[in-house]
# Entry
Amino acid sequence: MYRFLLSRRWLIALLIALLLIPTTIRLGFWQLHRHEARVDRNELIAQALTAEPVPFDTLSATPGFAVPKDLAWRSVTATGQYDPAHEFVVRKRTDSSGDKIGYFVVTPLVLADGRGSILVNRGWVPSGTSATEYPAVPAAPAGQVALTGRLRPDETATGSLKDRAGLPDRQFNLISTAQQTKESGAALLGGYLELTATEPAPAEQPELLPEPNHSDIGPHMAYAIQWWLFTAMIPVGFVVMARREAKDRRKEAAEAEGPAVAVPA
# Structure
């Protein structure tokens, strides 16, 4: 009674099922690997944030230094004087709630030990009345300051971060030491400091950026389990449909022979 499985329609269905099984298995492992990468990232960030702060220029000591993943978010310190003449803002950035669009304020800090300058992301300010006007920015503290923050790599034009020319004066889309070196000629050490504290504390400052979220593991494990459950359902579904087809065929055959013939369950 199952000879119908050799029909063209059922052979095509079987082929589709056989192709879907390894595909859904791979999709499950893809989501599992994304989950593992997210967990590893969270652990790396947590370790970096809780590590004892070290001077910025002991990790990034040269211009053009590319901050590696294991140093990103590392707690760092820096002492020096701000260079407000080369301050700039970074467009299209959100506040800590993620609801308001504004600017990051980035001011170079000339290090007290004479090893160069670093970029300091002092925080977020709201947009002004016009996107072409420089926003209202609290002045950087004068004199020598001691900063604490998080080491961040230079931003590159990827995804939603797009670099473009022709922006208003002192406005950029990226925090890039290479870009700012061309603009100012200053010897900027690679990477930048995302400010968390200033000593002495200023009377007014941009809104400090919150720590990155390193507790959320995302939905990837749930997606992996869903793909694997779907994998298990493919052969089960095929068998169920085949049995239903066989039952329908038996019923049709019984009805063709006459009402007195009982239909097996």
